[in-house]
Structures are given as structure tokens and as C-alpha cells.
Specification:
about 150 residues; alpha+beta; Ribosomal Protein L9, domain 1; Ribosomal Protein L9, domain 2; 2 domains; 3-stranded antiparallel beta sheet; 3 helices; about 35% helix; about 25% strand; rRNA-binding; RNA-binding
């Protein structure tokens, strides 16, 4: 019995895979639980069209991410923070501050896509990793300066 999976199942396959299972497993577990649907010829055509459209959307998202990455190569950010005499920052420099600084430069990057190689605890130069797409990652240098 052929089943189209509607979500990832660890021992069986990933979402949108067409798998062969025993009839009882498909009829009594996968289909009633909503984990799969019967792989009829019309369902296979719909799946192929959906995968084609999803691939087109993913290509567009990846191209947009590559464009942003190309423009981000020359960007250097400066983040102001209150610091003591030893250079230790009071509070923290976080991803929201980096996202705001990027927005001021004309780049709209979600703060959840930003990580740090090392947490900024002192005044100095650091690097932020921007995960624009699962295949497109950019390192943006930024400086923490005392206000």
C-alpha cells in the first residue's frame, strides 16, 4: 500500500515522501492519525505540483538571501553600550541591538537569525553570524563602543 506522508515519521520517512507500508499499518494507524494519505494517482499529481511550487518559492527565498549576503559583505556596525573603566559592559549587547543597527543601514534581518561567535561582554570587536537561509550564512563584524 502506498502512502503519502503528511509529516516526518522517524522510522518511515519525511514529509511528502511516498512510502510502501503494510495495508494494516496504513489503514489503521497512519491515515486515521493524520500522518499520511492514500497515494492515488490524483494525489500524486497534486503532490508533484505542490513540490514544484515549493521548490520555486525556496529558490526565490534563497536568491533574496544571497542578494542580502552580497550587500552585507562591506557592512561594519557600531553598537554603543554603557561600560565601566575596565571596558566591561553593563548589561548586554544582544541580537535585538544588532537587528536594529542593520535596519538603520537598510537591511531587514530577523533577530532570531542572528547569533554571536563569542558573547560581547567587553568593549571591542566581535562577529555576528546571520543565518539568512539554511544554505546562506554571513559573518558581520561589529564593534562595541563605550557611550
Amino acid at each position: 500500500m502506498e502512502i503519502i506522508l503528511k509529516q516526518d515519521i522517524k522510522s518511515l520517512g519525511e514529509k511528502d515522501d511516498i512510502v510502501n507500508v503494510k495495508p494494516g499499518y496504513g489503514r489503521n494507524y497512519l491515515i486515521p492519525q493524520g500522518f499520511g494519505a492514500l497515494a492515488t494517482p490524483s494525489a500524486k499529481k497534486v503532490l508533484a505540483e505542490n513540490l514544484k511550487q515549493a521548490a520555486f518559492k525556496q529558490d526565490k527565498i534563497k536568491k533574496d538571501a544571497e542578494d542580502i549576503a552580497a550587500r552585507l559583505t562591506d557592512v561594519k556596525l557600531s553598537i554603543g553600550a554603557k561600560a565601566g573603566e575596565t571596558g566591561k559592559i553593563f548589561g548586554a549587547v544582544n541580537t535585538i541591538m544588532i537587528a536594529d543597527a542593520l535596519k538603520q543601514q537598510g537591511f531587514d534581518v530577523d533577530r532570531r537569525r542572528i547569533t554571536f561567535e563569542t558573547e560581547p561582554k567587553f568593549v571591542g570587536d566581535y562577529v555576528a553570524n546571520l543565518n539568512l537561509h539554511k544554505e546562506v550564512k554571513v559573518k558581520v563584524p561589529f564593534a562595541v563602543v563605550a557611550e
